[in-house]
Protein backbone atom coordinates (compact mmCIF):
# COMPACT_ATOMS: atom_id res chain seq x y z
CA UNK A 1 0.00 0.00 0.00
CA UNK A 2 1.22 3.48 -0.89
CA UNK A 3 1.22 5.86 2.09
CA UNK A 4 -1.39 8.62 2.05
CA UNK A 5 0.16 11.99 2.98
CA UNK A 6 -0.62 15.70 3.05
CA UNK A 7 1.29 18.04 0.77
CA UNK A 8 2.82 19.82 3.74
CA UNK A 9 4.56 16.54 4.68
CA UNK A 10 6.11 16.07 1.24
CA UNK A 11 9.60 17.08 2.47
CA UNK A 12 9.65 13.93 4.63
CA UNK A 13 8.96 11.68 1.63
CA UNK A 14 11.51 12.66 -1.00
CA UNK A 15 11.99 9.89 -3.60
CA UNK A 16 9.12 7.89 -2.12
CA UNK A 17 5.87 6.96 -3.81
CA UNK A 18 2.89 8.47 -1.97
CA UNK A 19 -0.80 9.15 -2.42
CA UNK A 20 -2.35 12.62 -2.03
CA UNK A 21 -5.97 13.76 -2.11
CA UNK A 22 -5.93 17.13 -3.86
CA UNK A 23 -7.75 19.67 -6.00
CA UNK A 24 -6.50 21.14 -9.25
CA UNK A 25 -5.93 24.90 -9.15
CA UNK A 26 -4.37 25.39 -12.58
CA UNK A 27 -2.88 23.41 -15.45
CA UNK A 28 -0.30 23.97 -18.16
CA UNK A 29 0.92 21.63 -20.90
CA UNK A 30 3.88 21.82 -23.20
CA UNK A 31 4.42 19.00 -25.65
CA UNK A 32 4.90 15.76 -23.77
CA UNK A 33 4.68 17.21 -20.30
CA UNK A 34 1.82 18.60 -18.21
CA UNK A 35 2.11 20.63 -15.02
CA UNK A 36 -0.79 20.38 -12.59
CA UNK A 37 -0.98 22.98 -9.82
CA UNK A 38 -2.38 21.15 -6.80
CA UNK A 39 -3.65 22.03 -3.37
CA UNK A 40 -4.93 19.94 -0.49
CA UNK A 41 -5.51 22.62 2.15
CA UNK A 42 -2.12 22.12 3.78
CA UNK A 43 -0.01 23.60 0.96
CA UNK A 44 0.21 24.20 -2.79
CA UNK A 45 2.57 22.37 -5.09
CA UNK A 46 3.05 21.13 -8.60
CA UNK A 47 2.43 17.74 -10.09
CA UNK A 48 4.27 16.72 -13.24
CA UNK A 49 2.82 14.24 -15.75
CA UNK A 50 5.15 13.02 -18.48
CA UNK A 51 3.77 11.32 -21.59
CA UNK A 52 5.22 7.87 -21.93
CA UNK A 53 5.91 7.58 -18.23
CA UNK A 54 2.23 7.20 -17.32
CA UNK A 55 -0.18 4.95 -19.17
CA UNK A 56 -2.04 6.49 -22.13
CA UNK A 57 -5.32 6.51 -20.24
CA UNK A 58 -3.89 8.67 -17.45
CA UNK A 59 -2.25 11.05 -19.88
CA UNK A 60 -5.53 11.41 -21.81
CA UNK A 61 -7.35 12.09 -18.53
CA UNK A 62 -5.20 15.14 -17.84
CA UNK A 63 -6.80 16.90 -20.80
CA UNK A 64 -10.22 16.69 -19.15
CA UNK A 65 -9.20 17.91 -15.70
CA UNK A 66 -10.77 21.26 -14.84
CA UNK A 67 -10.04 23.80 -12.14
CA UNK A 68 -11.14 22.38 -8.75
CA UNK A 69 -11.51 18.80 -9.97
CA UNK A 70 -10.72 16.67 -6.94
CA UNK A 71 -8.57 13.58 -7.28
CA UNK A 72 -6.44 10.94 -5.66
CA UNK A 73 -2.94 11.25 -7.02
CA UNK A 74 -0.16 8.73 -6.78
CA UNK A 75 3.42 9.68 -7.51
CA UNK A 76 6.96 10.23 -6.33
CA UNK A 77 8.06 13.33 -4.39
CA UNK A 78 11.05 15.34 -5.68
CA UNK A 79 12.71 18.57 -4.66
CA UNK A 80 11.74 21.61 -6.75
CA UNK A 81 13.99 24.48 -5.81
CA UNK A 82 12.23 26.98 -8.10
CA UNK A 83 8.92 26.97 -6.21
CA UNK A 84 7.94 28.66 -2.91
CA UNK A 85 7.13 25.26 -1.50
CA UNK A 86 10.32 23.56 -2.66
CA UNK A 87 8.89 20.15 -3.66
CA UNK A 88 6.82 18.60 -6.45
CA UNK A 89 5.26 15.26 -7.29
CA UNK A 90 5.99 13.22 -10.38
CA UNK A 91 2.60 11.69 -11.06
CA UNK A 92 2.09 7.98 -11.84
CA UNK A 93 -1.64 7.77 -11.54
CA UNK A 94 -4.72 9.98 -11.21
CA UNK A 95 -8.14 8.94 -9.98
CA UNK A 96 -10.83 11.60 -10.32
CA UNK A 97 -13.01 11.90 -7.22
CA UNK A 98 -15.30 14.84 -8.01
CA UNK A 99 -15.68 16.74 -11.26
CA UNK A 100 -15.78 20.51 -11.41
CA UNK A 101 -17.11 22.72 -14.18
CA UNK A 102 -16.79 26.47 -14.66
CA UNK A 103 -15.30 27.30 -11.27
CA UNK A 104 -16.06 31.02 -10.96
CA UNK A 105 -12.71 32.13 -9.53
CA UNK A 106 -10.21 31.79 -12.35
CA UNK A 107 -6.50 32.57 -12.25
CA UNK A 108 -7.23 36.03 -13.74
CA UNK A 109 -7.77 39.05 -11.47
CA UNK A 110 -11.20 39.52 -9.89
CA UNK A 111 -12.74 42.53 -8.14
CA UNK A 112 -13.02 42.44 -4.36
CA UNK A 113 -16.84 42.44 -4.30
CA UNK A 114 -16.92 39.46 -6.67
CA UNK A 115 -14.43 37.64 -4.48
CA UNK A 116 -16.39 38.41 -1.31
CA UNK A 117 -19.61 37.19 -2.95
CA UNK A 118 -17.74 33.94 -3.58
CA UNK A 119 -15.93 33.83 -0.26
CA UNK A 120 -16.98 30.18 0.23
CA UNK A 121 -14.90 29.35 -2.86
CA UNK A 122 -12.33 32.14 -2.60
CA UNK A 123 -11.08 30.54 0.63
CA UNK A 124 -9.42 27.92 -1.57
CA UNK A 125 -7.01 30.44 -3.11
CA UNK A 126 -3.43 31.01 -2.03
CA UNK A 127 -3.91 34.36 -0.34
CA UNK A 128 -6.82 33.37 1.93
CA UNK A 129 -4.95 30.15 2.65
CA UNK A 130 -1.88 32.07 3.84
CA UNK A 131 -3.92 34.50 5.95
CA UNK A 132 -5.95 31.72 7.61
CA UNK A 133 -2.75 29.79 8.36
CA UNK A 134 -1.40 32.86 10.15
CA UNK A 135 -4.73 33.46 11.89
CA UNK A 136 -4.67 29.87 13.09
CA UNK A 137 -1.11 30.18 14.39
CA UNK A 138 -2.09 33.34 16.30
CA UNK A 139 -5.07 31.54 17.82
CA UNK A 140 -2.87 28.66 18.99
CA UNK A 141 -0.23 31.10 20.24
CA UNK A 142 -2.86 33.00 22.23
CA UNK A 143 -3.95 29.90 24.11
CA UNK A 144 -0.34 28.88 24.70
CA UNK A 145 0.64 32.32 25.96
CA UNK A 146 -2.19 32.70 28.46
CA UNK A 147 -2.08 29.12 29.69
CA UNK A 148 1.70 29.40 30.12
CA UNK A 149 1.08 32.52 32.20
CA UNK A 150 -1.37 30.81 34.52
CA UNK A 151 -4.64 32.16 33.09
CA UNK A 152 -7.98 30.39 33.13
CA UNK A 153 -10.24 30.73 30.09
CA UNK A 154 -13.58 32.08 31.21
CA UNK A 155 -16.28 32.24 28.54
CA UNK A 156 -18.53 35.27 28.90
CA UNK A 157 -22.15 35.25 27.65
CA UNK A 158 -22.85 36.59 24.16
CA UNK A 159 -26.37 37.71 25.05
CA UNK A 160 -26.34 40.53 27.56
CA UNK A 161 -28.25 43.53 28.83
CA UNK A 162 -25.14 45.70 29.32
CA UNK A 163 -23.49 48.24 27.04
CA UNK A 164 -19.98 48.45 28.45
CA UNK A 165 -18.45 50.14 25.40
CA UNK A 166 -21.27 52.62 24.80
CA UNK A 167 -24.86 52.45 23.67
CA UNK A 168 -24.49 53.58 20.06
CA UNK A 169 -23.15 50.36 18.56
CA UNK A 170 -25.44 47.72 19.99
CA UNK A 171 -27.20 44.98 18.05
CA UNK A 172 -30.58 44.75 19.64
CA UNK A 173 -32.34 41.42 20.07
CA UNK A 174 -35.76 40.57 21.42
CA UNK A 175 -35.15 38.27 24.36
CA UNK A 176 -38.60 36.92 25.27
CA UNK A 177 -40.06 40.42 25.11
CA UNK A 178 -37.15 41.95 26.97
CA UNK A 179 -34.44 44.14 25.47
CA UNK A 180 -31.14 42.37 25.06
CA UNK A 181 -28.02 42.89 22.99
CA UNK A 182 -25.28 40.92 21.33
CA UNK A 183 -22.19 41.40 23.45
CA UNK A 184 -19.70 44.14 22.48
CA UNK A 185 -17.17 42.97 25.06
CA UNK A 186 -16.85 40.25 27.65
CA UNK A 187 -14.95 42.52 29.97
CA UNK A 188 -17.42 43.03 32.80
CA UNK A 189 -17.82 39.26 33.11
CA UNK A 190 -14.06 38.78 32.95
CA UNK A 191 -13.76 41.17 35.90
CA UNK A 192 -16.10 38.91 37.86
CA UNK A 193 -13.89 36.03 36.72
CA UNK A 194 -10.68 37.76 37.85
CA UNK A 195 -12.14 38.15 41.35
CA UNK A 196 -12.93 34.42 41.33
CA UNK A 197 -9.88 32.96 39.56
CA UNK A 198 -7.17 35.64 39.62
CA UNK A 199 -6.14 35.73 35.98
CA UNK A 200 -8.67 34.95 33.27
CA UNK A 201 -9.12 35.52 29.57
CA UNK A 202 -11.88 35.26 27.05
CA UNK A 203 -11.50 34.59 23.37
CA UNK A 204 -14.59 34.81 21.26
CA UNK A 205 -16.75 36.83 18.91
CA UNK A 206 -18.12 40.25 19.83
CA UNK A 207 -20.57 42.39 17.93
CA UNK A 208 -20.72 46.07 17.12
CA UNK A 209 -23.30 47.76 14.96
CA UNK A 210 -20.68 49.88 13.21
CA UNK A 211 -22.52 52.00 10.68
CA UNK A 212 -19.30 53.32 9.20
CA UNK A 213 -17.60 51.62 6.31
CA UNK A 214 -13.91 51.61 7.06
CA UNK A 215 -11.07 49.22 6.46
CA UNK A 216 -10.71 48.78 10.22
CA UNK A 217 -14.24 47.87 11.26
CA UNK A 218 -16.21 44.67 11.19
CA UNK A 219 -19.62 44.21 12.82
CA UNK A 220 -18.58 40.79 14.14
CA UNK A 221 -14.99 40.30 15.20
CA UNK A 222 -12.95 38.18 17.59
CA UNK A 223 -11.49 39.61 20.73
CA UNK A 224 -9.05 38.30 23.31
CA UNK A 225 -9.77 39.86 26.71
CA UNK A 226 -7.45 39.08 29.61
CA UNK A 227 -8.30 40.43 33.05
CA UNK A 228 -5.89 40.25 36.00
CA UNK A 229 -6.60 40.71 39.71
CA UNK A 230 -3.95 42.55 41.73
CA UNK A 231 -2.47 43.99 38.50
CA UNK A 232 -1.82 47.68 38.10
CA UNK A 233 -1.59 49.29 34.70
CA UNK A 234 2.20 48.97 34.55
CA UNK A 235 2.07 45.19 34.96
CA UNK A 236 -0.69 44.98 32.39
CA UNK A 237 1.32 46.99 29.85
CA UNK A 238 4.25 44.62 30.27
CA UNK A 239 2.00 41.62 29.75
CA UNK A 240 0.51 43.23 26.64
CA UNK A 241 3.84 43.86 24.95
CA UNK A 242 5.06 40.36 25.83
CA UNK A 243 1.90 38.90 24.32
CA UNK A 244 2.18 40.87 21.08
CA UNK A 245 5.89 40.10 20.70
CA UNK A 246 5.07 36.42 21.30
CA UNK A 247 2.36 36.42 18.62
CA UNK A 248 4.77 37.93 16.09
CA UNK A 249 7.53 35.50 17.05
CA UNK A 250 5.23 32.49 16.67
CA UNK A 251 4.26 33.63 13.18
CA UNK A 252 7.93 34.10 12.34
CA UNK A 253 8.76 30.65 13.70
CA UNK A 254 5.93 28.68 12.12
CA UNK A 255 4.47 30.57 9.16
CA UNK A 256 7.43 31.02 6.89
CA UNK A 257 5.62 29.61 3.85
CA UNK A 258 2.47 31.69 4.45
CA UNK A 259 4.55 34.86 4.83
CA UNK A 260 6.26 34.07 1.52
CA UNK A 261 2.91 33.61 -0.22
CA UNK A 262 1.85 37.03 1.12
CA UNK A 263 5.19 38.60 0.21
CA UNK A 264 5.52 39.81 3.81
CA UNK A 265 9.12 40.56 4.75
CA UNK A 266 10.05 38.71 7.99
CA UNK A 267 12.79 41.28 8.67
CA UNK A 268 10.12 43.93 9.24
CA UNK A 269 8.23 41.64 11.62
CA UNK A 270 11.41 40.88 13.58
CA UNK A 271 11.56 44.52 14.68
CA UNK A 272 8.23 44.07 16.44
CA UNK A 273 9.60 41.42 18.78
CA UNK A 274 11.98 43.94 20.37
CA UNK A 275 10.81 45.04 23.83
CA UNK A 276 9.94 47.30 25.47
CA UNK A 277 7.50 49.15 23.23
CA UNK A 278 7.70 52.94 23.39
CA UNK A 279 5.08 54.93 25.29
CA UNK A 280 3.68 58.40 24.76
CA UNK A 281 1.01 60.15 26.79
CA UNK A 282 -2.17 61.40 25.16
CA UNK A 283 -1.11 64.94 26.17
CA UNK A 284 2.23 64.64 24.37
CA UNK A 285 0.62 62.99 21.37
CA UNK A 286 -1.76 65.94 21.00
CA UNK A 287 1.13 68.37 21.17
CA UNK A 288 3.06 66.35 18.58
CA UNK A 289 0.06 66.36 16.25
CA UNK A 290 -0.54 70.09 16.67
CA UNK A 291 3.12 70.85 15.92
CA UNK A 292 2.75 68.88 12.72
CA UNK A 293 -0.23 70.72 11.37
CA UNK A 294 -3.11 68.55 12.61
CA UNK A 295 -6.26 70.48 13.42
CA UNK A 296 -6.88 68.79 16.77
CA UNK A 297 -7.43 70.02 20.31
CA UNK A 298 -7.03 68.42 23.72
CA UNK A 299 -10.08 66.26 24.37
CA UNK A 300 -10.58 65.07 20.78
CA UNK A 301 -10.33 61.40 19.95
CA UNK A 302 -7.85 60.26 17.32
CA UNK A 303 -9.02 59.23 13.89
CA UNK A 304 -6.99 56.98 11.68
CA UNK A 305 -4.79 59.79 10.20
CA UNK A 306 -3.77 60.83 13.72
CA UNK A 307 -3.09 57.26 14.82
CA UNK A 308 -1.03 56.65 11.70
CA UNK A 309 1.01 59.80 12.25
CA UNK A 310 1.73 58.89 15.87
CA UNK A 311 2.72 55.32 15.08
CA UNK A 312 4.95 56.46 12.20
CA UNK A 313 7.21 58.15 14.74
CA UNK A 314 8.26 54.74 16.08
CA UNK A 315 9.71 51.54 14.66
CA UNK A 316 7.46 49.21 16.66
CA UNK A 317 4.02 49.32 18.31
CA UNK A 318 3.50 52.30 20.62
CA UNK A 319 1.33 52.70 23.72
CA UNK A 320 -0.67 55.92 24.00
CA UNK A 321 -1.37 56.48 27.69
CA UNK A 322 -4.02 58.25 29.73
CA UNK A 323 -6.73 59.50 27.41
CA UNK A 324 -9.32 62.06 28.47
CA UNK A 325 -11.95 60.57 30.73
CA UNK A 326 -14.72 62.05 28.58
CA UNK A 327 -13.89 59.91 25.53
CA UNK A 328 -13.31 56.59 27.30
CA UNK A 329 -15.53 53.90 28.83
CA UNK A 330 -17.13 54.36 32.25
CA UNK A 331 -15.20 51.63 34.06
CA UNK A 332 -11.67 53.06 33.75
CA UNK A 333 -9.66 54.02 36.80
CA UNK A 334 -9.41 57.76 37.37
CA UNK A 335 -5.93 59.28 37.44
CA UNK A 336 -4.71 59.76 41.04
CA UNK A 337 -3.80 63.45 40.62
CA UNK A 338 -5.86 64.61 37.63
CA UNK A 339 -9.57 64.36 37.16
CA UNK A 340 -9.56 64.84 33.39
CA UNK A 341 -7.73 61.67 32.33
CA UNK A 342 -7.98 57.94 33.10
CA UNK A 343 -5.42 55.16 33.59
CA UNK A 344 -5.67 53.49 30.22
CA UNK A 345 -3.65 52.75 27.11
CA UNK A 346 -4.27 51.98 23.48
CA UNK A 347 -1.59 50.08 21.61
CA UNK A 348 -1.13 51.44 18.09
CA UNK A 349 0.38 49.13 15.48
CA UNK A 350 3.02 50.34 13.03
CA UNK A 351 2.54 50.76 9.28
CA UNK A 352 -0.75 52.59 9.65
CA UNK A 353 -2.78 49.80 11.26
CA UNK A 354 -3.99 51.88 14.18
CA UNK A 355 -5.35 50.65 17.49
CA UNK A 356 -4.96 46.91 18.01
CA UNK A 357 -5.38 46.88 21.81
CA UNK A 358 -7.56 48.93 24.14
CA UNK A 359 -7.07 48.45 27.86
CA UNK A 360 -7.05 50.06 31.26
CA UNK A 361 -6.79 49.70 34.97
CA UNK A 362 -10.34 49.45 36.33
CA UNK A 363 -12.08 51.72 38.79
CA UNK A 364 -12.30 49.94 42.15
CA UNK A 365 -14.22 52.42 44.26
CA UNK A 366 -17.92 51.60 44.66
CA UNK A 367 -19.23 55.13 44.87
CA UNK A 368 -17.11 56.42 42.02
CA UNK A 369 -18.20 53.59 39.74
CA UNK A 370 -21.85 54.00 40.66
CA UNK A 371 -21.67 57.69 39.77
CA UNK A 372 -19.96 56.85 36.47
CA UNK A 373 -22.79 54.47 35.56
CA UNK A 374 -25.31 57.21 36.27
CA UNK A 375 -23.29 59.85 34.40
CA UNK A 376 -23.16 57.59 31.34
CA UNK A 377 -26.95 57.24 31.45
CA UNK A 378 -26.73 53.51 31.96
CA UNK A 379 -29.42 51.69 33.88
CA UNK A 380 -28.11 51.22 37.42
CA UNK A 381 -30.13 48.07 37.99
CA UNK A 382 -28.44 46.33 35.03
CA UNK A 383 -25.03 46.98 36.62
CA UNK A 384 -25.79 46.11 40.22
CA UNK A 385 -24.03 42.77 39.90
CA UNK A 386 -20.99 44.55 38.49
CA UNK A 387 -20.99 46.97 41.41
CA UNK A 388 -21.06 43.98 43.75
CA UNK A 389 -17.50 43.22 42.61
CA UNK A 390 -16.46 46.46 44.38
CA UNK A 391 -18.33 45.54 47.52
CA UNK A 392 -16.75 42.25 48.51
CA UNK A 393 -12.96 42.47 48.61
CA UNK A 394 -12.42 44.91 45.75
CA UNK A 395 -8.79 44.82 44.51
CA UNK A 396 -6.76 46.72 41.92
CA UNK A 397 -7.19 44.99 38.59
CA UNK A 398 -6.42 45.64 34.95
CA UNK A 399 -7.21 44.15 31.60
CA UNK A 400 -7.23 44.71 27.90
CA UNK A 401 -8.78 43.61 24.63
CA UNK A 402 -6.93 42.67 21.46
CA UNK A 403 -8.90 42.74 18.22
CA UNK A 404 -7.77 39.54 16.49
CA UNK A 405 -8.52 40.74 12.95
CA UNK A 406 -6.72 44.04 13.56
CA UNK A 407 -3.64 42.15 14.67
CA UNK A 408 -3.84 39.75 11.71
CA UNK A 409 -4.21 42.63 9.24
CA UNK A 410 -1.12 44.25 10.65
CA UNK A 411 1.01 41.10 10.76
CA UNK A 412 -0.10 40.02 7.26
CA UNK A 413 -0.03 43.60 5.92
CA UNK A 414 -3.61 43.49 4.58
CA UNK A 415 -5.48 46.47 3.12
CA UNK A 416 -8.71 45.68 4.91
CA UNK A 417 -9.94 43.67 7.90
CA UNK A 418 -12.40 41.72 5.74
CA UNK A 419 -9.62 39.40 4.58
CA UNK A 420 -8.56 38.56 8.14
CA UNK A 421 -11.74 36.60 9.02
CA UNK A 422 -13.18 33.62 7.13
CA UNK A 423 -16.65 35.08 6.55
CA UNK A 424 -16.65 38.84 7.20
CA UNK A 425 -19.69 40.65 8.54
CA UNK A 426 -19.91 44.32 7.58
CA UNK A 427 -22.50 47.03 7.08
CA UNK A 428 -23.53 45.66 3.67
CA UNK A 429 -22.50 42.08 3.92
CA UNK A 430 -23.71 38.97 5.70
CA UNK A 431 -23.57 36.39 2.91
CA UNK A 432 -21.97 33.91 2.51
O1 LIG B 1 -11.05 49.37 22.45
P1 LIG B 1 -12.20 48.41 22.62
O2 LIG B 1 -13.56 48.91 22.33
O3 LIG B 1 -12.06 47.86 24.10
C1 LIG B 1 -12.91 47.03 24.73
O4 LIG B 1 -13.87 46.51 24.23
C2 LIG B 1 -12.50 46.71 26.13
N1 LIG B 1 -13.68 46.21 26.86
C3 LIG B 1 -11.38 45.73 26.11
C4 LIG B 1 -10.91 45.37 27.51
O5 LIG B 1 -10.31 46.18 28.16
N2 LIG B 1 -11.21 44.17 27.95
O6 LIG B 1 -11.94 47.16 21.70
C5 LIG B 1 -10.77 46.39 21.84
C6 LIG B 1 -10.13 46.10 20.50
C7 LIG B 1 -9.67 47.36 19.76
O7 LIG B 1 -8.43 47.79 20.21
C8 LIG B 1 -9.61 46.85 18.33
O8 LIG B 1 -8.43 46.12 18.13
C9 LIG B 1 -10.76 45.87 18.28
O9 LIG B 1 -11.05 45.50 19.61
N3 LIG B 1 -11.96 46.45 17.66
C10 LIG B 1 -12.44 46.08 16.47
N4 LIG B 1 -12.00 45.19 15.55
C11 LIG B 1 -12.73 45.03 14.44
N5 LIG B 1 -13.86 45.70 14.17
C12 LIG B 1 -14.36 46.60 15.05
N6 LIG B 1 -15.50 47.22 14.79
C13 LIG B 1 -13.62 46.83 16.27
N7 LIG B 1 -13.82 47.61 17.35
C14 LIG B 1 -12.81 47.36 18.18
MG1 LIG C 1 -10.68 51.28 21.86
TrEMBL record:
Domain Aminoacyl-transfer RNA synthetases class-II family profile: 132-432
Single GO BP term: asparaginyl-tRNA aminoacylation
Enzyme class: ligase
GO cellular component, as recorded: cytoplasm
One Pfam family recorded for the sequence: tRNA-synt_2
Record-level Gene Ontology MF annotations: asparagine-tRNA ligase activity; ATP binding; catalytic activity, acting on a protein; nucleic acid binding; transferase activity
UniProt family annotation: Belongs to the class-II aminoacyl-tRNA synthetase family.
Subunit structure and binding partners: Homodimer.
Name listed for the protein in its UniProt record: Asparagine--tRNA ligase
Gene: asnS
